[in-house]
Amino acid sequence: MRPLLFCVLLLLTGRVSAQHSFTNLLPGRSLHHWMTESGRPVREGWAFDDDGTLHLQGRGGHIVTRCCYTDFELWFEFRISEGGNSGIKYRVRRYGDSLLGCEFQILDDAAFPDLSEKNKTASLYDVFAPRTQPVRVRPAGEFNVGRIVVRGQRLKHWINGQLTVDERAGSRRWRQHIQQSKFRDRRGFGCNRTGRIMLTDHHSEVWYRNVFIRPL
């Protein structure tokens, strides 16, 4: 594990019960925790660089965890390519023909200066903009530390130690924002307690390392 996230996790795990330990979702350059949307092993697009970083290069499609999660804490490091767009979704479930979920947006924000704040890095994509500005995002090509905490219907996002989202799924405010988003026709969007984690393929290069999850 690289020093940046190791130190953060060490500080964190010193304050939590040892019975809920973190699971490495990218152990030993393996994708055995992940599968394609159709449930097959991951064979294309997603591969490990020489330093052990998971790298999406070319078309690999979205990949999802084999396990479903309810209350959890997810830590990860990511970097995006110049002009790139990606994201990590959670509470992923099927809506008609699509697998959808709440998304921690990952974007080269500098390449999209006119984009709505609710579609920029560390937002809850297309629903809630980061609560504080400016967001402490390192530029494309550099690694950032992300964190997602889901406990009951409270959803939180952090980036580089900065809290950017703190919302309650199903609340009046939630319903109002959903009605102003592309998910307005997805009944109960984001209110399901259990779902998979997804790494998205939005036709951009993206890198992940030190992806750890623990149940709460």
Present the secondary structure layout.
Layout: H1 3-13, E1 23-24, E2 34-36, E3 46-48, E4 54-56, E5 63-65, E6 72-80, E7 85-95, E8 98-107, E9 144-151, E10 154-159, E11 162-168, H2 172-179, E12 196-199, E13 206-215
Antiparallel strand pairs: 1-13, 2-5, 3-4, 4-13, 5-12, 6-9, 6-13, 7-8, 7-12, 9-10, 10-11
CATH architecture: Sandwich
Whole-number mean pLDDT = 93
Low-confidence stretches: 10-18
CATH superfamily, called what? Exo-inulinase, domain 1
> Which structural class fits the helix and strand makeup?
mainly beta
CATH class: Mainly Beta
In whole angstroms, the N-to-C terminal distance is 22 Å
Provide the succession of SSEs. Answer: HEEEEEEEEEEEHEE
Number of helices: 2
Question: What does this molecule look like?
Answer:
With 216 residues, this protein is mainly β. The protein has a single domain (3-215), classed as Exo-inulinase, domain 1 (Jelly Rolls), CATH 2.60.120.560. Helix content is 9%, strand content 37%. It contains two helices and 13 strands, in the order αβββββββββββαββ. The strands form two sheets. Strands 1, 3, 4, 6, 9, 10, 11 and 13 form an eight-stranded antiparallel beta sheet that branches. A five-stranded antiparallel beta sheet has the order 2-5-12-7-8, with no helix packed on it. β7 and β8 form a beta hairpin. The radius of gyration is 16 Å and the shape is globular. The protein starts with a helix and ends with a strand. Residues 10-18 have low confidence and may be disordered.
